[in-house]
Amino acid sequence: GYRSRAAYKLQQLDEMEDLLSDGDRVVDLGAAPGGWLQVATERVGTGAVVGVDLQRIDPIEGVETIKGDMTDEQTREEIVERVGEADVVLSDMAPNMTGEYSLDQARSVHLARQAFETACALLRPGGDFVVKVFEGRDLDTLRDDMEAEFEYVRTTSPAASRKESSEVYLIAKGFLTAPVEEGE
Ligand code: SAM
């Protein structure tokens, strides 16, 4: 069994969008408790999977984990240093819910933007990026900014997540430029 119901969302996203292939190097942001890591490591075979979260992630065979805050520049630098180049960057990050939708939504967009910037620093040309975000303000701007960096961006809601109706996934395929070298 999987550690989270979220695992089924990644399975559905992969089936719809063809994200994970044998040999891929995958970085998963907001990875605890690790359901997506379990699905990703099954699907990339000889590839590599790295998970990052504020919270500790119980070990998964073949998966490297980093404990850190993605809003912290040091964490982002550490990931780039440790991973080098990635084929796929995933983010299922979500803020701690306050119950006030406009605040939770704004935090979600902020986390999604941090994930997007990290993806731009990590992805090889042609690589893919998936990010969860709550619908609402500033989502169109984020999507427009992503469209400038990828061949195309699609907004989707896997069946497994339809109950939590405000969340969508942006699927960005075909990263257009080479990753930025750290320290230059
Ligand atoms: N995909 C995961 C799975 O299948 O197990 C579930 C992820 S859960 C919906 C969202 C995660 O985002 C939480 O574990 C939370 O700690 C993490 N998160 C939220 N803000 C973060 C941040 N600033 N940096 C790193 N992780 C963060």
From TrEMBL:
Q: Where does S-adenosyl-L-methionine bind?
A: 34, 36, 53, 69, 92
For this record, an example GO cellular component is: cytoplasm
* UniProt subcellular location: Cytoplasm
The record's active-site residues are 132 (proton acceptor)
Q: What is catalyzed by this enzyme?
A: uridine(2552) in 23S rRNA + S-adenosyl-L-methionine = 2'-O-methyluridine(2552) in 23S rRNA + S-adenosyl-L-homocysteine + H(+)
- Give the UniProt keywords, A-Z: Cytoplasm, Methyltransferase, rRNA processing, S-adenosyl-L-methionine, Transferase
Predominant localisation class: cytoplasm
E.C. number: 2.1.1.166
Which GO MF terms are attached to this record? rRNA (uridine-2'-O-)-methyltransferase activity
Task: Give the family from UniProt.
Answer: Belongs to the class I-like SAM-binding methyltransferase superfamily. RNA methyltransferase RlmE family.
Main function: Specifically methylates the uridine in position 2552 of 23S rRNA at the 2'-O position of the ribose in the fully assembled 50S ribosomal subunit.
Protein name (database record): Ribosomal RNA large subunit methyltransferase E
Instruction: State the organism named in the record.
Output: Halalkalicoccus paucihalophilus
Which lineage is the organism of this entry classified under, starting from the top rank? Answer: Archaea, Methanobacteriati, Methanobacteriota, Stenosarchaea group, Halobacteria
